[in-house]
Amino acid sequence: AGIKISPSMMITTVKVLSLRVRFGVYDDVKMVPAFLRFFPNVEALHMTSEKCDHLAGNFDLQFWEEVGPIVSVVLRLKVITFREYHGRQDEIAFLQYIFQNARVLKDVMIQIINPRFTSLSADEMTRTINNMPDEKWVRKFQIPVFRSIGPEGLSPWTFQRGADLSDGDPIAPVKFITMRVSVVLQYLHFYVRRTVLYCQYVLSEDWAFP
Fold first, then answer.
1. Inter-residue contact 89 to 55 (CB < 8 Å)
2. Total domain count for the chain?
3. Residue 204 included in any domain
């Protein structure tokens, strides 16, 4: 599946990549593996699921398994954020592919779409993440889930933010801050037993907890 990429086409200097994808449209989905192969050293991937009025394909896990291993995903990817999550099967399949193949992944964040723009409630969309067929990686990464309270499609990126050379990842919708906690953080869907948990706590003015 996808487009063949020759070594001469690869750009090795890019480490942060942001993609806006209609996961129900074949022409969009087939470009995702191509972009990930174009940039083999990507360490931070920021995905936004675009509105899709007419679904044009069934992109399940089999589709992504046929894509095969991608160097950036298997060996480089450390951070992934997924915004405007609708709870659709095509989005779930993509996330499963990433989590099953990314060996050095450390930080994960999923932001569900504002429930005003979908037929599912915030709880229903969150359950599609927690109840995926292979939930081992859900427990492994202890994924924080947030709810958008902004407009559909989110606010556009600004040139000023992207040109901020003091920020190693100006595209990132959140900043991951490692901190110690010893309480049950129910709003982040974490389960803490007796030991101190190192968790990823994220802050954003546009988000709320589901």
1. no
2. 1
3. no
Q: Which residue has the tokens 């930080």?
A: 107
Rounded CA gap, 29 and 82, in Å? Answer: 15
Domain hosting residue 137, numbered range: 7-174
Q: Give Cα 193 to chain centroid, integer Å.
A: 27
Look at residues 80, 184, 94, 101 and name the one whose alpha carbon lies nearest to residue 132.
94
Cα separations in angstroms, 146 against 44, 181, 188: 19, 19, 8
Query: pTM for the whole thing?
Result: 0.71
Other CB atoms closer than 10 Å to residue 204's CB: what's the count? Answer: 14
- Does 46 or 159 have the greater pLDDT score? 46
Alpha-carbon distances of 126 from 52, 130, 161, 187, rounded to whole Å: 20, 7, 30, 11
